[in-house]
Amino acid sequence: MKFFIDTANLAQIKEAHELGVLDGVTTNPSLMAKEGITGHDNIIAHYKAICEITDGDVSAEVIATTFDEIVTEGEALAKLHPRIVVKVPMIKDGVRAIKHFSSKGIKTNCTLVFSAGQALLAAKAGATYVSPFIGRLDDVSTDGMQLIEDIRLIYDNYGYETQILAASVRHPMHIIQCAKIGSDVITGPLSAITALLKHPLTDSGLAQFLADHAKAAGK
Ligand code: G3P
């Protein structure tokens, strides 16, 4: 399973990359704004900076919502760097644009997906990735993980190559459950990824090993 980090924070992207487990980065307009990245030139420069850190795909989201504008904006984003994936919202013009990008060999990430029907449409349009938002479904008392299961079943039934990119991941159990179901990718905050490291028996076991070693060495 691929691990993407869901942030526009360069320090966190570097930290995840240096851990050696990072396969890519996802951003969205809210995450860019959170880092104070505003204005066309700054946004473009920031995407390029992210692409210089990671070896994997970097999702850059279009702001446009009409077909012609999505195509223009998406093609410009795709030209920035070979690692750029054009992130397109699950709206009618977005589906049309994904089909267009797919026919031109431009990678896409269909975002804001909350139902199996939306995921089916994204796959039929040829999206490289589909992003179901599991945390936001959980927030409204709907089982986000059930959606990942449903999409996995549908894609496997027909051999769709669109990769399931479980997004809006909030905690380590989301990652583990996605891995059990067979999500191709998860994207979440660095905290959810590093939380996978933690176990109290690891900490107490290591403390004991080091204490025994020190005792045997006569310290
Ligand atoms: O990639 C989509 C993701 O950023 C949404 O996450 O935590 O804002 O629901 P969240």
TrEMBL record:
<dbReference type="GO" id="GO:0004801">
    <property type="term" value="F:transaldolase activity"/>
</dbReference>
<keyword id="KW-0704">Schiff base</keyword>
<dbReference type="GO" id="GO:0006098">
    <property type="term" value="P:pentose-phosphate shunt"/>
</dbReference>
<dbReference type="InterPro" id="IPR018225">
    <property type="entry name" value="Transaldolase_AS"/>
</dbReference>
<dbReference type="GO" id="GO:0016832">
    <property type="term" value="F:aldehyde-lyase activity"/>
</dbReference>
<feature type="active site" description="Schiff-base intermediate with substrate">
    <location>
        <position position="87"/>
    </location>
</feature>
<dbReference type="InterPro" id="IPR001585">
    <property type="entry name" value="TAL/FSA"/>
</dbReference>
<comment type="function">
    <text>Transaldolase is important for the balance of metabolites in the pentose-phosphate pathway.</text>
</comment>
<keyword id="KW-0808">Transferase</keyword>
<dbReference type="InterPro" id="IPR004731">
    <property type="entry name" value="Transaldolase_3B/F6P_aldolase"/>
</dbReference>
<protein>
    <recommendedName>
        <fullName>Probable transaldolase</fullName>
        <ecNumber>2.2.1.2</ecNumber>
    </recommendedName>
</protein>
<dbReference type="GO" id="GO:0042182">
    <property type="term" value="P:ketone catabolic process"/>
</dbReference>
<dbReference type="Pfam" id="PF00923">
    <property type="entry name" value="TAL_FSA"/>
</dbReference>
<keyword id="KW-0963">Cytoplasm</keyword>
<dbReference type="InterPro" id="IPR013785">
    <property type="entry name" value="Aldolase_TIM"/>
</dbReference>
<dbReference type="InterPro" id="IPR033919">
    <property type="entry name" value="TSA/FSA_arc/bac"/>
</dbReference>
<keyword id="KW-0570">Pentose shunt</keyword>
<comment type="similarity">
    <text>Belongs to the transaldolase family. Type 3B subfamily.</text>
</comment>
<dbReference type="GO" id="GO:0005975">
    <property type="term" value="P:carbohydrate metabolic process"/>
</dbReference>
<dbReference type="GO" id="GO:0005737">
    <property type="term" value="C:cytoplasm"/>
</dbReference>
<dbReference type="InterPro" id="IPR022999">
    <property type="entry name" value="Transaldolase_3B"/>
</dbReference>
<comment type="pathway">
    <text>Carbohydrate degradation; pentose phosphate pathway; D-glyceraldehyde 3-phosphate and beta-D-fructose 6-phosphate from D-ribose 5-phosphate and D-xylulose 5-phosphate (non-oxidative stage): step 2/3.</text>
</comment>
